[in-house]
Write a structure and sequence with these properties.
The protein is an alpha/beta fold. About 35% of the residues lie in helices and about 15% in strands. The longest helix is centred in the middle third of the chain and has 15 residues, at about 170-185. It binds adenosine-5'-diphosphate (ADP) and magnesium ion. Magnesium ion binds near residues 350, 351, 352 and 373. The site of magnesium ion (MG) has 4 residues, from helix 13.
């Protein structure tokens, strides 16, 4: 595990602190539709406020590409943050500049500031040093609590640490601990569930967990590529032709590594991907004509459940089917219910799967839900995340 200093390791009293948070929340008609990411940053904000620090929060929102976009201003986020924190949040209309410097200078203990959308500034995603220096100018300390952007070297995640010391927030610290736990000392039996669209997105994560897991349960579109590698013809189903050979190699490796790799034994197919589309359950050698595979079948669900029931630790990334379009959400939902009520330590990552679990009201039953999408995958791959590396070592 990378050992980084966190806010708990340093004196923060009286300090003006730029806190990089991930408030990149979904908006709906100018209101925050889902505030999970705002709530995830609460422990760090409360800790800093209780210890007499003056937090200046900064986040990106959407993809304004270096220009101000009225519909991506941080005002709705500030409004929701006020409700959650139960105190006034002063939202500024700039990211850097004299107005910000002045507001931070006169800020009192107990006050919270929120800067405008970081990506309104061209220097942010370019990690421009002069922009990073301006971000750092009004503060004494930098705290990174935005794990979801830790895989990007931006001014507010990396550049700023050239001008002011950087430490981890409590969410960042927890992410590092939980994701490392999956890699370094998982409890056994250790069962890993991998789904989602593509093998190509996750090849290195599959390989990593092949080394560590007792059981690897495959679903989603990526299972089609593995089934193709076993010689099945899945008709017009989505799969990655150019990854079939790689999938075959992974199956071989799993045997050598003593990892039980399971593929769907039955499949839910339909001619069209639309809500309520007539579906049927078939075996992999029965897929015909215009049928396309959109979910794992009930026998597969039962087989996977037996491994989940016995597991001491479960890691899950990627949905088992096209969960957005009912009835193809069943496989994902049924595994989620089993994991939610199991006593195993469960760690879930991946934007789409987390959205599915939240829609099912099961997110609260998972031991740890990672707030990263790409960042979580890169951490599990063993890549160095620049936003973490830039923080001070223990
Ligand atoms: P995550 O964000 O959880 O890591 P991915 O982004 O890899 O997951 O994949 C999610 C997408 O995979 C969803 O949009 C889902 O509809 C799609 N998907 C799952 N199963 C299938 C399938 N059998 N065929 C096509 N797409 C699928
Ligand atoms: Mg996704």
């Amino acid at each position: 595990m990378v050992e980084k200093k966190s806010i708990e390791d340093i004196e923060v009293s009286g300090k003006r602190v730029l806190v990089r948070v991930d408030f990149n929340v979904p908006l709906d008609q100018g209101k925050v539709r889902d505030d999970a990411r705002i709530r995830a940053a609460l422990p760090t904000m409360q800790n800093l406020l209780n210890r007499g620090a003056r937090p200046v929060l900064a986040s990106h929102l959407g993809r304004p590409k270096g220009e101000p976009k009225p519909e991506l201003k941080m005002d709705p986020v500030a409004a929701r943050l006020e409700e959650i924190l139960g105190r006034k949040v002063k939202k500024l209309d700039d990211v850097v500049g004299p107005q910000v410097v002045e507001a931070v200078a006169v800020m009192q203990e107990g006050e919270v500031l929120l800067l405008e959308n970081l990506r309104f500034e061209k220097g942010e995603e370019k990690n421009d040093p002069s922009f990073a220096r301006k971000l750092a100018e009004p503060v004494d300390l930098f705290v990174n609590d935005a794990f979801g952007t830790a895989h990007r070297a931006h001014a507010s995640t990396v550049g700023i640490t050239e001008y002011v010391p950087g430490v981890a927030g409590l969410l960042m610290k927890k992410e590092i601990e939980e994701l490392s736990h999956c890699l370094e000392n998982p409890a056994h039996p250790f069962t890993v569930v991998l789904g989602g669209a593509k093998v190509s997105d996750k090849i290195n994560v599959i390989r990593r967990f092949l080394e560590l897991a007792d059981n690897l349960l495959i679903g989603g579109g990526m299972a089609n590529t593995f089934l193709a590698a076993c010689g099945y013809n899945l008709g017009e189903s989505f799969y990655e032709k150019e990854l079939v050979q790689e999938a075959a190699t992974i199956i071989e490796e799993s045997e050598k590594k003593n990892c039980r790799l399971l593929l769907p034994q039955d499949l839910v197919v339909a001619e069209e991907l639309k809500p309520g589309s007539p579906e049927r359950v078939v075996y992999p050698d029965e897929v015909r004509g215009a049928w396309k595979v959109f979910d794992i079948g009930p026998e597969t669900v039962n087989a996977y459940i037996t491994y989940l029931d016995k597991a001491a630790m479960v890691v899950w990334n990627g949905p088992m089917g096209v969960y957005e379009t009912p009835p193809f959400h069943h496989g994902t939902e049924q595994l989620a219910q089993v994991i939610a009520r199991s006593g195993a330590h469960s760690v879930v990552g991946g934007g789409d799967l987390v959205a599915a679990l939240e829609a099912q009201g099961l997110a609260g039953e998972i031991s740890f839900i990672s707030t990263g999408g790409g960042a979580t995958l890169e951490y599990w791959e063993g890549k160095e995340l620049p936003g973490i590396s830039a923080l001070q070592d223990q």
